[in-house]
Design a protein that fits this description.
The protein is an alpha+beta fold.
Length: about 210
């Protein structure tokens, strides 16, 4: 079995039916050749008794080595008993922090988000919150999966907005996106967002 290289992938021409060329260097890594000439990198693994074949991406958008790196990550996950196909599906279905903010703002505008005094947030406060989302939260952590931000936050989802809780929220944020430069009011808002997300969707374990 040949190793997959730029030369071997480039030389693989179309046939009457689609076929695969597998790599001898990285078992489970291959390229699918379509009759149209299109070439798609794939990774094939076994998880329990099931065989999974995952699409990595087209040749051209991915170099052989980039696709090999992705395949090795998939193969490594499968060796640990993680179903990469299910993991990919779950990640696609999970909402981001930006999407959680959108859900939160819709609820706040409808008067469904309560303050610590058990009354609806004033609309002037909602406008300020919207500005914090636009200027600070979405640019820094909007693309992070909300479930990742919520991990391990059960212990401070309901504690008062103090300096200590601010530091805990900052730690949760920086663990996901590096040294995010959050101002104190924005971090307090993220604390409220974590509390709302945990209450609405449940807090992921881990």
């Amino acid at each position: 079995m040949k190793h997959l290289t730029k030369r071997t992938v480039g030389a693989a021409g179309p046939a009457d039916k689609e076929y695969f060329v597998w790599c001898g260097l990285t078992p489970g890594f291959g390229v699918r050749i379509y009759p149209s000439g299109r070439k798609i990198f794939v990774a094939q693994v076994r998880v329990g008794r099931q065989t999974r074949r995952l699409r990595i991406g087209p040749y051209g958008a991915f170099t052989v080595e980039q696709a090999r790196t992705s395949a090795r990550e998939i193969i490594r996950s499968a060796s640990l008993g993680i179903d990469p196909q299910r993991q990919k599906r779950d990640a696609r279905q999970a909402i981001t922090v930006a999407e959680l903010c959108e859900i939160y703002m819709e609820a706040a505008k409808a008067g469904l988000v309560l303050t610590r005094f058990r009354v609806s947030k004033r609309q002037t406060t909602v406008v300020i919150d919207e500005g914090r989302i636009t200027r600070h939260i979405n640019p820094l952590i909007g693309s992070i999966l909300a479930r990742d931000l919520l991990k391990g936050t059960t212990s401070y989802c309901s504690i008062p907005a103090t300096k200590k809780s601010y530091l805990l929220v900052r730690k949760a944020v920086t663990s996901q996106c590096g040294k995010a430069r959050f101002r104190y009011p924005a971090s307090r808002y993220v604390q409220g967002l974590i509390w709302y997300g945990g209450k609405t969707f449940g807090t992921p374990k881990g």
